[in-house]
Design goal:
The protein is mainly alpha-helical and 66 residues long. It is built from two helices and no strands. Helix 1 runs antiparallel to helix 2.
Length: 66
């Protein structure tokens, strides 16, 4: 398997994990009594946080492994 396929697969997994975290955060916010717009904002913040964390981890690993 080439490196391109591995990068695409890992990228897809990160996006799926970010979507799951966003859905969980939005559901928990809604169960806590937040309005729909507030719950969506919390879900969006969780999505961005997971993607940012993945990018930071990738950058740190790239600097260590090269």
């Amino acid at each position: 398997m080439s490196a391109v396929y591995i990068v695409l697969f890992v990228g897809a997994l990160v996006v799926i994990f970010a979507l799951l975290a966003a859905a969980a955060a939005a559901k928990l916010a809604r169960l806590d009594g937040a309005t729909y717009p507030a719950a969506l904002m919390r879900g969006a913040a969780a999505f961005v946080a997971v993607l940012t964390l993945a990018a930071a981890a990738t950058g740190a690993l790239a600097s260590v492994l090269t």
